[in-house]
Every structure is written in structure tokens, then in C-alpha cells.
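haha ok so turns out i had the wrong file open the whole time. this is the CORRECT one, sorry everyone. sequence first:
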Amino acid sequence: MYVTLMFHLYASLYALVDDSKEGLNAFRIWREHFSGEEAAIAAVEQQIAPFKSDLRLFRNRLGYHGSRTRSHEAKGWDLFANASGSAIWNAMVNLKGLGATLLAKELAERKSDAEEVAWCRARIDSIADHARQKTAA
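then structure:
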């Protein structure tokens, strides 16, 4: 069960950052809607960049689409040779955290809740700092 769930999470991560024209790309959507948060968006995007290509192959050959031959799916396993599970997990946590906090900040702004906006601002900055630290490591 654990392996199946992790396969789904890795494949879903790529689905959220797929930069093809037809793909859902959280970074592109966030830039359009939260233009003032470019620094935080870019920090999380840079954290994912080193293994994005391997995530695509994993998703296409193992995660969602599967493969008819072991030789075809073999390239999908490169993700695990080229990136640690903790690096990918940390990127997932930051992607999820940034998305949730951007939405929370917008809701707080609509309610004119200055205290909540300030909390969200600090959280966004913290996520961006964490992403930069993980990217530099």
C-alpha cells in the first residue's frame, strides 16, 4: 500500500507542475493570480526544478500511464537514482504549503483580517526561505 501511495504522490506532483500548454502548472496559475508573490513562487519552483524531468518520466512510464515493457519503464526509475526521497518530499510539502497559504492570505485580505494577513505573509516568507535552503543544500 505504501509504495502504491508514494507512486501516486510522485506522479501527482508532476501533474501539478507540468509546464506543457495543456498541463496544469501551479506556478503559472499562481503567477497570474498572486503576482506579488513571485519570489516565493520562484523559490519553490527552483526547489522542484532539479528533478522535474525525472518526475515527468516517472509519471509517464510508471505512475499514471504505465508501460508494456520493463525496458520502457526503466527510465522512469531514474528519479530514485537522481533525487532522494526526502528532497522530493520536502518539495511536495513546500508546494502544498505555499498553495494553501496563498489562498489563506487572499481570504484574509477579503475579510480585511490584518492579523491573519500578517501571519500568512510570515508563513509565505518562511516557505520560500525553506525552499531556498533545500535548493542550496
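The longest helix spans residues 85-110.
again sry for the mixup
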